Amino acid sequence: MNAIAVAPAGSALRGAVGELRAAGVPTPELDAGLLLAEALGVERATLIADPDRPLGESQLRRFEELLARRRAREPVAYILGRKAFRHIDLSVDQRVLIPRPETELLVELALELPPGARVADVGTGSGAVALALAHERPDLELIATDRDAGALAVARANAGRLGIALELVEADLLVGVAGPFDAVLCNPPYVTEHEWPQLVPEIVRYEPPQALLGGPDGLDVIRRLVSGAAAASARTLAIEVGQGQADAVAALMRAAGFARAERHRDLAGIERVVVGRAGPA
Questions:
Q1: Which residues constitute the domain of residue 65?
Q2: In angstroms, what is the C-alpha Rg of the chain?
Q3: Is pTM beyond 0.85 here?
Q4: Which H or E element spans position 239?
Q5: What are the backbone angles phi and psi of residue 180, rounded to the nearest 5°?
């Protein structure tokens, strides 16, 4: 057997960490461990418990293939084809935005809705928000929309794999979708044109720009969404926003008839979700 036919996992992992660090990957230890576990077909915890387990030649080759993709700054979620979100695992690819931890705040706020509430998840992408809600609040009447047929295909596949019945509609925001709604939830594109070139390669090179770019001030889609939600007689409108956008979004909501606009901070302390409430202030 030649020298590369079998290698200890720990040695391969150390070399991979160095390669990823040199490529500018921000979390080289975590990412290398995840990719090595994938190549071995084990959980990362198993690898940590047995760092000296051998890699066969095919496993080492597979690890090197995965590592090359990460060195090119492809996100780990796309390489593995999956991403955890709250209590569910989602399949993801470059047709959809990778679900972020801060978006879980939308789900947490919606958990407070009354039984049987009618809820629209607008721009559903992978289906993350709608499917997490359906998993935790099966009493809700959920509809998920997206203008992109590819994204809807990903969401539909996720719903099927999770065994969740979810109404999926191809629509531009809420155009053609009949209200009223107890709540409209959305993680819209809100990155400004100025911010876009400064984002990390994982985002700029690989994630769908239509799910991220929100125009010169990041509010192009949000303006249309607020108007559409008001027209659909939404009682509550919850929108994820970028850093520094909460004031402008709250003003848009009040102008559209949402008498109250609340701000909710994410774990980093950023005003991440603005919630508009219809009715008396």
A1: 7-72
A2: 21
A3: yes
A4: strand 236-240
A5: -80, 165
CATH code (residue 247): 3.40.50.150
Pairwise CA distance, residues 60 & 147, whole Å? 41
Question: For the packed helices 28-40 and 57-71, what is the interaxial angle rounded to 10 degrees?
Answer: 140
Are 223 and 169 in contact by the 8 Å Cβ rule? The answer is no
Tens digit of pLDDT for each residue in 122-151?
A: 999 999 999 999 999 999 999 999 999 999
Q: What three-state secondary structure class fits 185?
A: strand
Nearest residue to 126 via CA among 74, 161, 175: 161
Q: How far is CA 61 from CA 7, 65, 111, 176, in A?
A: 11, 6, 45, 50
Q: How many domains does the chain have?
A: 2
Q: 127 in a domain, yes or no?
A: yes
Host H or E run for residue 263:
strand 260-265
Shared domain check, 105 and 64 = no
- Rounded (10°) CA dihedral 32, 34, 37, 38: -110
Distance CA 73, CA 70 (A): 5
Looking at the structure, do residues 122 and 52 belong to the same domain, yes or no? Answer: no
Assess whether 93 and 220 both reside in one domain.
yes
pLDDT digits (tens, 9 = 90+) for 75-122: 999 999 999 999 999 999 999 999 999 999 999 999 999 999 999 999
Which amino acid, one-letter code, is at 64? E
* Distance in angstroms (rounded) separating the CA atoms of residues 275 and 264: 8
Same domain, 30 and 127: no
Asked, as a colleague might, if the bond just before 114 is cis with ω within 30 of 0, I would say no
What is the rounded CA–CA span in Å between residue 234 and residue 227? 10
